[in-house]
């Protein structure tokens, strides 16, 4: 198996892998947590260095087949769990002392290209959009959710200004018969969007993003994942997140801004106080991005933003401020924060 996972027809490029390796320096050994195993690109690249161990998670049961390959090859150095990263504490012990915890968010190229999962506009299969370990599918959401709620989800989680118009159209259609496939859903959204032929992207892009985020409670997962990772990391451990859209990046950026050395003093009239909620050393407020060569090879990397910070020895506290700031996302995704 090589870095592009030649097992599959779909080419798989681990996004910003070189930058990640240079941040975590696996050549010096250590234990690494890959919270989003996917096709195993990061895990595999880390395990090439002999003194490393990787503990990997993915909520998608279909990633098992890639994990099996690495488990066979590195029986003492690789462990895989089909688990959501919000439950990181369930599969780790507090004394694990990982050198880095890595999140590479969103969907893998395998999930995107698998028409049976319903993530793509042309899928004629069941409207699922489930990554794995879900409570409901996109079919349930589209066909049963209250119209107002549906409009809010599309507006907020898709950043789609026509949320209400799209929700109205969806409800009109489902009153006649259930909306069963992603293809049907995409064509209903196209009807709702005026002048859709003028759009560069498919006009259903934002709504699909919203429904997928809601079905998988992706923002709740990210917020709880960051908190769990911060609890687990000890002095010198690195937290790395690669995100792909503005909602995710806003959460990561705010988390680091609130709990790092770069946090602003609450008021310029107050004396600079020792910040007890400082858990991380952040090197830059700006994210790293993929270089042109990578973008040419893998267009998905164009929207990638990599942020990372190094844990200090301050003890973890309950991150109320962060949770309050994003309480609307917890509420919208129907999660108790
Ligand atoms: C972009 S892919 C990761 C690709 C991987 N870095 C590689 O190089 O092959 C994201 C993966 O994260 C998984 N994932 C997304 N949200 C998750 C969550 N909350 N918990 C666990 N896995 C998750 C998805 O199922 C998907 O397989």
Residue fraction in strands: 5-15%
Q: Biggest sheet, in brief? A: 7 strands, mixed
* Category by helix and strand content: alpha/beta
The rounded Rg comes to 21 Å
**Widest beta sheet: strand line-up:** 3-2-1-4-5-7-6
Oligomeric state, counting identical vs distinct chains: single chain
Q: What is the general shape?
A: globular
Helical residue percent?
Answer: 40-55%
Q: Compute the average pLDDT.
A: 92
Low confidence ranges: 1-7
Helix count equals 15
First CA to last CA: what distance? Answer: 41 Å
- Compressed to H and E, one letter per element, the order equals HEHEHEHEHHHHHHHEHEHEHH
Ligand set = S-adenosylmethionine
Number of strands: 7
Q: How does this model look, in words?
A:
- By secondary structure, this protein is of the alpha/beta class.
- 40% of the residues lie in helices and 11% in strands.
- The chain has 15 helices and seven strands.
- Strands 3-2-1-4-5-7-6 form a seven-stranded mixed beta sheet, sandwiched between helices.
- S-adenosylmethionine (SAM) binds next to helix 2 and strand 2.
Give a summary of the structure in a few sentences.
The protein has about 325 residues and is of the alpha/beta class.
